[in-house]
Amino acid sequence: MLSARSLFQEILENDDSYQLFCSIAASGEAQGGWENGRIAALVPDTMRALAPKITRHGADEDKHGRIFNALLRKRGLDPVCVPPETDYTMLLERQGIGLAHEKLRRDERLTERDIVVYLSHSRVTEQRAADQMDMLVRFFGDHPEVGRAVRQICNDEDNHLSYCHEELLRLARAGHGRAIQGTLRECALTEIAVYRDVSLAVMAHMGRILKWPRSKSAVLAGGIHALYAFERAGGWRRMVTLRMPERRDALGGPATTAPVV
Q: I want to staple 59 with a disulfide (CB 3.0 to 4.6 A). Which of 19, 104, 225, 255 is the partner?
């Protein structure tokens, strides 16, 4: 029976598909680490209190990239080049979501509006990451090879999502509410389309590696399109609601080190 659990189990058991999966994940986390590091360095003077939390966010993303690379090394594998059509982070940037890398490479202070854009973008993408990691923990939290890694990353993603909720609510109280809601909606509607396209591309690559029959690939593609239809019809709203999290000041402490995997 085809299920998310059996699909990921199949990817996990094959070296080539596992190598691609971990390489895509490591690359995305490394990009997120760089972005957060640059944002922390360029925070406007009126928001300097946020810099340590943004730095912690970036350090966590870097750590996740190291974890995925360590999982590869543990199996005697090297990272492979990430196909551009599977590069979620870069495809979002090309759609104008988040802060452009060109802006982040300049040594110019960001504006308060830029920080609103950054946090809104993070609110949406961290929701996706948290949902995915919750699923992986449910399926593989006790797995001897990847269990410890996915539990650590899942905990961090929950912290990141809590941080985004808390800081966006604080900024809304400070008068940025209208800008936040508009930016969140734009980010969410773009993200669900990019996630659909990336998912289709990843599954196409996995299908070729694992030699899936055409019927299986068609079923998986249909499931991806069905998820997009659900999210486009209203499921995207879970990505834009804001509520005070149970984890307060989730990024207020020092970054943790990567676990031995």
A: 255
What distance in Å separates the CA atoms of residue 201 and residue 214, rounded to the nearest whole number?
A: 15
* Ramachandran quadrant class, 186 (left: phi over 0; alpha: psi -120 to 50; beta: rest): alpha
Rg, C-alpha atoms of the chain:
18
Residue owning tokens 């802006």? 103
- Nearest CA among 134, 239, 149, 162 for reference residue 195: 239
d(CA 201, CA 217) in angstroms, rounded, equals 11
**Integer angstrom CA distances of residue 183 from 58, 178, 191, 238, 251:** 22, 9, 12, 14, 23
What is the residue-level pLDDT of the chain in tens, covering all 261 positions?
678 889 999 999 999 999 999 999 999 999 999 999 999 999 999 999 999 999 999 999 999 999 999 999 999 999 999 999 999 999 999 999 999 999 999 999 999 999 999 999 999 999 999 999 999 999 999 999 999 999 999 999 999 999 999 999 999 999 999 999 999 999 999 999 999 999 999 999 999 999 999 999 999 999 999 999 999 999 999 999 999 999 999 998 766 665 556
Distance from C-alpha of 181 to C-alpha of 168, rounded to nearest angstrom: 10
Q: Is the pTM of this model over 0.85?
A: yes
Length of the chain: 261
Tokens of 24: 């895509």
Identify the three-state secondary structure at position 241. Answer: coil
Angle at 230 between CA 222 and CA 238, to 5 degrees: 135
DSSP-derived letter for residue 84 is G
| CB of 247 closer than 8 Å to CB of 188 | no
Q: How far apart are the first and last CA of the chain?
A: 30
> What token pair was written down for 232?
């486009």
